[in-house]
Structure to design on (875 residues):
């Protein structure tokens, strides 16, 4: 036998009440390798990593670091064992400098100055070593998302992490930033560091990992060499059945213009211009995909069209102007006009998590005659309608009385989707339709969107997943910094060109 | 996943809280050299041992139901209305003005108008903090509590300068005979059921029961209630659904204030039959504890109100029976109950959740 694994898990189990989040998981990660962990939402990836980082205590099983049994009761112990974690949502103090964030929690002595001086030196060395140029004195809030992530990685390295866990690291990055991250990771690997990458993106797994483990329903079902598998194979292992990775659709048959947006502007409460004169059109029977890195105005665009946010400019729906501020510009008026909205953040906007599924079916439609009589809600009608919708959208468990928070991400999304699609809109706004949704459900949701298009509805799709934009859209508009950088046809562009546009580069690469 | 079975949440936890409160109260009584078992006996007997005891217990409970419902309704919209005290005082004013305005021939004619008067004045007093919250973002907790002080000053002014009847006391003239609400003695007498003649329990209790049913319908059956609950759970989601936060804040607070104002029916019209300075006597604040303990559900509010009614009445008896236990001592006991049922809820909840989890696991294995 060769050297001991950097990390070895032996029969780890963890239950939350009756839910078995991790069941008998054993895993070996060899030093100096990049190990991918892939699985659907709720498969138990995050729980497993939280156990490894000391956030949760496993009910049974043991953790070995470098061949030695190492109990990890809290994150301090994890750090001491040389484990570093980069979370999906960064844990940085926004108005602290890079340097201050790096030393936070690792200060020595009563005074900060010596620590900072030492850290500055160490940080510069690290940055040079791994090509991670970050200004140590820059405030976090002034850094791009990609740079913030580097700070997180530097934080872990500063604590002398040998094993780096990254949880969905590319979700917020442009393709170019993701490429840079991968270069950094390869550099780290070359230095002998061990990296565990949690992701749901098959492409990334194929591109960068040496070995990959598949998790399904709390169990580690397979561990394979990346070179001996394929995306199709991995997807099937994840879901446990055959899946369609490509969206099956015929060319669009666009008809009359449904939505016309002219010179749309939004200024937020801090006086920052979020939308700087957006012009776009969506026609009946087509899907307009808006590509862009999160935070470039796509959310504001959806909010304005959905009646959540006031704006300036002009919006015409089937030729009729919509009011953009004041009375008659709220979400209720938009629904009456024929716009329905699957919001980007279903937990914050689309659902009341404590409400039961049937209560959520009426959400936004509580004054429809079919759901109420006079002042009273017709709860029975709502329940029956929810029951039928759950059947048509294959929501599991098929239980209208279950609270929304008890459904998985994919099923929550189906509840929202069923509500907004079956409201029979002229225009469907749909943001991040498959964020946090498992592969099996993605296929279903994509099919529904295409079906709706084929019924002659106009669809405005916003997604940060380029794959999704490329495969669903009939036209693609790229947003950067509150502007539309350009429009492309999916057949006539590629990820490189879109990536440049997403990064604000005007130049036509192709 | 639910951490606790609902029966444990609704029954077991309040019960344990109560027992703990009584245990600590017992220690306090022991410390001043009295017998806690005897004290408990006096309390329970005084509150529930006779029709007289029940007559007072349910009279107090009626006040607490109104103020408790007021807090509960606002809570569903995630608004913490701690202005029940002031709203109830103003409600009493509304009731008094209605009763004094006309020489009412029959109580059943006066009652509906008094209900409207009380609700209207209570709602109006809640309207200003509501507007400030909805339009200006001033926090409702701050404004409602400040309005309690304004209300109290206003009542002093009115009762000293405007409504004062001849005599020493700052109180209004007595209400006309026709506004006298039938007491429990009168009502039960019709059915031949004997009841204490002097206990202040009156038909306002039935109004309170109707208010419980009304609140239940409002919150869980009407579209407005649906929108209130949705707003209370998540404001951004409510906006997404086209629910106007301003509208919900205003309407909810008006209903909440109106419910608090209804207390005047019981305290002013039903008992004092004149407007006095201290018609509310802290019931507005007890309403907060009642709503908290009753989990903001009308049934819970009703039960908690009866409990607090018994605590009040039992406390008065205790003070009377055992001289060593002073008025302040009674306040300590009441405060302990509020402390344990309200603020220290988590102290019992967390270990109990663990216990149930362990039991369930054992059951599964």
């Amino acid at each position: 036998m060769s050297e001991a694994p950097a990390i070895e898990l032996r029969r780890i189990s963890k239950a939350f009440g009756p839910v078995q989040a991790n069941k008998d998981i054993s895993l070996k990660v060899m030093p100096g390798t990049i190990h991918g962990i892939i699985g659907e939402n709720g498969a138990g990836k995050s729980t497993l990593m939280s156990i490894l980082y000391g956030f949760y205590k496993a009910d049974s099983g043991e953790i070995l670091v470098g061949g030695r049994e190492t109990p990890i009761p809290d994150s301090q112990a994890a750090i001491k064992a040389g484990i570093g974690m980069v979370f999906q949502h960064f844990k940085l103090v926004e108005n602290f400098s890079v340097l201050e964030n790096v030393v936070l929690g690792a200060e020595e002595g009563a005074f900060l100055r010596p620590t900072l001086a030492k850290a500055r030196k160490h940080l510069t060395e690290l940055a040079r070593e791994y090509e991670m140029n970050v200004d140590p004195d820059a405030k976090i809030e002034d850094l791009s998302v990609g740079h913030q992530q580097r700070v997180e990685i530097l934080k872990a390295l500063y604590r002398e992490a040998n094993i780096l866990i990254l949880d969905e690291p590319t979700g917020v990055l442009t393709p170019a930033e993701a490429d840079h991250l991968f270069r950094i990771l390869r550099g780290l690997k070359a230095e002998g560091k061990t990296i565990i990458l949690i992701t749901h993106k098959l492409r990334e797994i194929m591109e960068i990992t040496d070995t990959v483990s598949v998790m399904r329903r709390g169990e580690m079902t397979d561990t394979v060499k990346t070179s001996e598998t394929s995306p199709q194979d991995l997807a099937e292992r994840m879901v446990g059945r055959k899946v369609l990775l490509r969206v099956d659709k015929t060319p669009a048959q666009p008809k009359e213009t449904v939505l016309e947006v002219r010179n749309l502007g939004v200024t937020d409460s801090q006086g920052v211009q979020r939308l700087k004169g957006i012009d776009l059109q969506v026609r009946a029977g087509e899907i307009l995909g808006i590509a862009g890195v999160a935070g470039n105005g796509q959310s504001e665009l959806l909010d304005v069209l959905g009646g959540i946010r006031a704006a300036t400019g002009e919006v015409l729906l089937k030729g009729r102007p919509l009011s953009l501020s004041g009375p008659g510009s709220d979400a209720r008026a938009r629904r009456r006009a024929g716009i329905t909205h699957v919001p980007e953040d279903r937990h914050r906007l689309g659902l009341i998590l404590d409400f039961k599924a049937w209560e959520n079916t009426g959400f936004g439609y509580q004054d429809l005659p079919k759901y109420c009589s006079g002042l009273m809600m017709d709860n029975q009608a709502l329940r029956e309608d929810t029951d039928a919708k759950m059947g048509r959208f294959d929501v599991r468990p098929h239980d209208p009385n279950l609270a929304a928070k008890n459904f998985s991400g994919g099923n929550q999304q189906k509840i929202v989707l069923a509500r907004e699609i079956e409201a029979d809109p002229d225009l469907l706004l749909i943001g991040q339709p498959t964020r946090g949704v498992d592969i099996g459900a993605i296929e279903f949701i994509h099919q529904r969107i295409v079906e709706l298009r084929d019924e002659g509805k106009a669809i405005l799709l916003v997604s940060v997943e380029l794959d999704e934009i490329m495969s669903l859209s009939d036209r693609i508009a790229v947003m950067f910094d509150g502007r539309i950088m350009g429009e492309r046809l999916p057949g006539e562009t590629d990820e490189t060109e879109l990536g440049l546009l997403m990064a604000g580069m005007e130049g036509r690469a192709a | 996943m639910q951490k606790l079975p609902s029966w444990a949440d609704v029954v077991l936890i309040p019960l344990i809280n109560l027992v703990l409160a009584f245990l600590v109260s017992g220690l306090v009584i022991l410390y001043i050299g009295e017998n806690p078992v005897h004290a408990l006996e006096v309390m329970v007997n005084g509150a529930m041992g006779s029709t007289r005891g029940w007559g007072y217990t349910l009279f107090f409970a009626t006040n607490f139901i109104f103020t408790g419902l007021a807090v509960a309704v606002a809570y569903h919209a995630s608004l913490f209305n701690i202005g029940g005290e002031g709203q109830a005082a103003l409600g009493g004013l509304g009731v008094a003005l209605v009763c004094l305005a006309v020489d009412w021939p029959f109580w059943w004619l006066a009652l509906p108008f008094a209900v409207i008067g009380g609700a209207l004045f209570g709602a109006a007093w809640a309207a200003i903090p509501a507007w400030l919250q909805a339009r200006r973002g001033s926090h409702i907790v701050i404004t409602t509590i400040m309005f309690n002080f304004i209300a109290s000053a206003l009542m002093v002014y009115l009762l000293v300068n405007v409504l004062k009847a001849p005599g020493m006391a700052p109180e209004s003239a007595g209400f006309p005979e026709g506004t006298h609400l039938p007491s429990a003695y009168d009502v039960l007498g019709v059915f031949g059921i004997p009841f204490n003649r002097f206990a202040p329990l009156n038909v306002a209790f039935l109004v309170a029961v109707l208010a419980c049913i009304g609140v239940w319908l409002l919150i869980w059956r009407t579209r407005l209630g649906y929108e209130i609950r949705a707003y209370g759970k998540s404001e951004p989601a409510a906006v997404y659904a086209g629910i106007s936060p301003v509208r919900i804040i205003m309407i909810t607070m008006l209903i909440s204030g109106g419910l608090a104002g209804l207390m005047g029916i019981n305290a002013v019209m039903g008992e004092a039959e004149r407007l006095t300075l201290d018609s509310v006597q802290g019931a507005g604040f007890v309403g907060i504890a009642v709503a908290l303990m009753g989990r903001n559900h009308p049934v819970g509010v009703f039960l908690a109100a009866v409990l607090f009614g018994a605590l009040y009445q039992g406390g008065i008896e205790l003070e009377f029976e055992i001289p060593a236990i002073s008025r302040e001592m009674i306040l300590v006991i009441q405060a302990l109950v509020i402390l344990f049922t309200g603020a220290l809820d988590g102290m019992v909840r967390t270990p109990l959740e663990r216990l149930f989890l362990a039991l369930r696991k054992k059951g599964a294995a």
